[in-house]
């Protein structure tokens, strides 16, 4: 159970906290960049988790060409839906991470 459920959930939680922090180093301070940070963080986390699910399918023995039988768009939709289901894990943590970013602002007042 630890390696099949708990460890991936903990890694997703860590990524959900870390990705907005790293993006805040690249983006300027302010409300609009904070919203952009949230959107970019969500896209990055969806891509990471979609890739993780695809890797799990390949590791479990399903050939990559069999995964692409639905076509590229069909596969993106399938793995995107799986990735969005993990938003229950990383979504709240990402929102809390984003909510803490204005504390470190120097130039812009919240």
TrEMBL record:
Keyword terms, alphabetized: Membrane, Transmembrane, Transmembrane helix
Transmembrane domains' residue ranges: 34-58, 70-93
Top-level taxon of origin: Bacteria
Name listed for the protein in its UniProt record: Branched-chain amino acid transport protein (AzlD)
């Amino acid at each position: 159970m630890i390696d099949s459920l708990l460890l991936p959930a903990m890694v997703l939680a860590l990524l959900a906290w870390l990705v907005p922090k790293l993006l805040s180093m690249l983006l300027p301070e302010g409300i609009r960049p904070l919203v952009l940070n949230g959107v970019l963080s969500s896209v990055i986390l969806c891509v990471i988790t979609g890739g993780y699910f695809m890797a799990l399918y390949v590791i479990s023995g399903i050939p990559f060409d069999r995964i692409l039988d639905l076509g590229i768009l069909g596969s993106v939709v399938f793995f995107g839906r799986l990735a969005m289901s993990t938003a229950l894990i990383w979504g709240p943590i990402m929102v809390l991470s984003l909510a803490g970013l204005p504390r470190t602002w120097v130039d812009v007042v919240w």
